[in-house]
Write a structure and sequence with these properties.
The protein is mainly α and about 250 residues long. It contains seven helices and no strands. The chain has one domain. Helix content is about 80%, strand content about 0%.
Amino acid sequence: MAAALGWGLFAASSLLIGAVIGLKLPIGERLIGLILGFGAGTLISAVSFELADEAFRLGGADTLTLGLALGALAYFVGDLVIARRGATQRMHPGPRMDSTPQGADTATALLLGAILDGIPESVVIGIGLIGGGGVSAAVVSAVFISNLPESIASSRGMREQGMGTRHVLVTWTLVVLVSGLAAAAGYGLLKDASGNTVALLEAFAGGAVLTMLIDTMIPESHEHAGRATGLATVLGFALAYLLGTLD
């Protein structure tokens, strides 16, 4: 469990790194969009070759389909609830232009949104260690890279809404800790589970991640980077696949 916690914290640590970058460095929206697209590509590769493939191997087509559907529905509902609290564009680098709540309410929504995005990814890191297997370089890399643009963009938006640097950093530190605990839980709660149960959870996480990509990450990437988003996404996909071949 300690290994799962450590890898979960490592993968999520990029959230805190991104927050510091967003607060301290002048990064343009186009670059953030390209990073978002690159991160989306890494996650698509991880879902395809790590989660879905392993879920199919352990549980078959029925379990894979059910898990994907449940994960997608769970993320959709959770994201809808959080969006109504003010985190509709939580990966947007600028101030929100709509009438969403401000101040503490928005900070809470951003925190919950980041946790919603990160928990499925972190759980998968813990699941990957079940049975004595090593951590997947592709999954850890995908999570680490995809976390950066979210925290860069959101931390900048939080600051422009008047939140102090300390408040922003504490918020992202909490997300990192929750993500690490989620990875530990993925290992601790499922280490004695059947292959079918593990498959269902892997597919569930895959469905949630794919829904997040389509609903949040890719649209905001295209908004900032335009047509170059596709190129950045393919590059991220290819890099994650190559890392996967090293496992």
